[in-house]
Design brief:
7 helices, Aspartate Aminotransferase, domain 1, single chain
């Protein structure tokens, strides 16, 4: 099972080569829509296994979900507004072309990583495990609250670290409808914030 919540539609997951039994993702992140709708693609092997699992709950009952899907009927009340949003975003993706979309996400990620190496202490993940949608930057002794406050006053926003890395990192989202121009603008603002903090 692949948790593709941040990577789906941002990088080529090479499904033909990997042959996953299941891929799960949502409308947030690289889909550039509000959260609220989840997708699961499952293999025939996965469905056959699901039929035999007892007490699988409601949302993990892929057999029942498939039956309703085959009837073109929702198992629960569908989030219709998000469905229209998905249709709109899929049209945009097809117009951009997936290879171009994947390249754009790679370029944005590379820009953030390059900045992190020049101005901070690099990125948190080990080389080869970095995300093309979230830049997790090692902040060292940077006063993140002050840094973020200045950035917000300039009309941009980033996020504090998460989980056990909360106090040593911060996160930069570079996915969905964002472009390299947007990331360049953010980098300029972050550089300006760092200069202001020196005063």
């Amino acid at each position: 099972m692949i948790d593709a919540v941040t990577s789906m539609f941002a990088m080529d997951l090479k499904f033909n080569k990997v042959q996953p039994d299941s891929v799960v993702f949502g409308t947030q992140k690289a889909f550039a829509l509000p959260p609220g709708m989840a997708f699961a693609a499952v293999s025939p092997k996965f469905l056959a296994k699901s039929e035999k699992v007892e007490n699988k709950g409601f949302y993990a009952d892929f057999t029942k979900l498939k039956e309703k899907n085959d009837e073109n009927y929702a198992l629960t009340t569908p989030p219709v507004s998000l469905m229209y949003g998905v249709d709109y975003q899929l049209d945009k993706m097809l117009k951009e072309g997936m290879a171009t979309r994947y390249r754009r996400h790679q370029e944005m990620a590379d820009m953030v990583r390059s900045w992190a190496c020049k101005r901070m202490q690099g990125v948190f993940p080990e080389k080869g495990y970095e995300s093309n949608t979230i830049g997790v930057v090692k902040r060292g002794d940077l006063d993140f609250d002050k840094f973020h406050s200045i950035i917000k006053s300039m009309g941009m926003e980033i996020s504090n670290g998460y989980g056990s890395a909360k106090n040593t990192t911060f996160r930069i989202g570079h996915m969905g409808d964002l472009t390299c121009t947007d990331i360049k603008a953010l980098i300029a603002v972050m550089d300006a914030a760092l200069e202001e903090m020196k005063q």
